[in-house]
Write a structure and sequence with these properties.
single chain; 1 helix; 8% helix; four-stranded antiparallel β-sheet; Immunoglobulin-like
Length: 211
């Protein structure tokens, strides 16, 4: 309840400080085959106004979403990692993925379509203990550029491993877990739209002997 009251107060503040009235903005997310993409995350960022809340929405089973916005200029971004469309802040997202656009909302309802390009490849990793083959509870992983070693993604995952939208250039996967030796893949290069699973077996670190 406290959270709802706070959000309501911030919304009233934004209305009071910005001229114009709320308009309905409706969007449709389509894949490269023209089919709707369900459960895509939609991030709306304000360009023409300072401050305010950057809301997040989700497309429905028909790829549609809608929200209310004051007149102004907005950046609309779409991502769905499981389909090969990474979070927009990832630096290797090609422009032709079509994940972002600038939208001008006028004093009337706005309707638009986002046509996404061919998705990136998807890398899936399953990490197990070398001793008994059991899934590891928590692993940390990195995706790094195969040539420059630049860190592209640094994150963690629970039981069952992880998946990521793969960079469109050669990269390596590094997997680490507490009490285990780190694992490093050979250079990987996934074609866009492809999927690859790697099975990682981590070896427990040897206990150090007292001097």
């Amino acid at each position: 309840m406290q959270t709802l009251l706070t959000l309501g107060f911030l919304l009233m503040l934004q209305i009071a400080e910005t001229p114009g009235s709320f308009q309905t903005v409706s969007g449709l997310v389509l894949g490269p085959d023209g089919k709707p993409i369900a459960e895509a995350i939609v991030l709306v960022e304000t360009i023409s106004q300072s401050g305010g809340i950057n809301p997040i929405y989700r497309s429905d089973s028909n790829g549609r979403f809608s929200y209310q916005a004051l007149p102004g200029r907005y950046k609309v971004s779409v991502f769905k990692k499981s389909e090969g469309y990474p979070i927009p802040i990832i630096g290797y997202s090609p422009a032709d993925l079509g994940q972002s656009l600038t939208l001008d909302v006028a004093q009337s309802s706005t309707d638009f379509v986002m046509h996404l390009g061919v998705p990136l490849g998807i890398i899936k990793c399953v990490a197990t203990d070398r001793r008994d083959g059991s899934l590891l509870n928590t692993v940390n992983y990195k995706l790094v550029h195969a040539d420059t070693q630049e860190k592209l993604i640094l994150s963690s995952a629970g039981v069952g491993g992880f998946f990521e939208a793969a960079p469109p250039f050669p990269f390596r996967v590094i997997v680490e877990a507490k009490g285990y030796e780190p694992w490093r893949s050979e250079p990987l290069n996934l074609e866009r739209g492809s999927r690859k699973q790697i099975n990682v077996t981590l070896t427990p670190k040897k206990a150090s002997s007292a001097p």
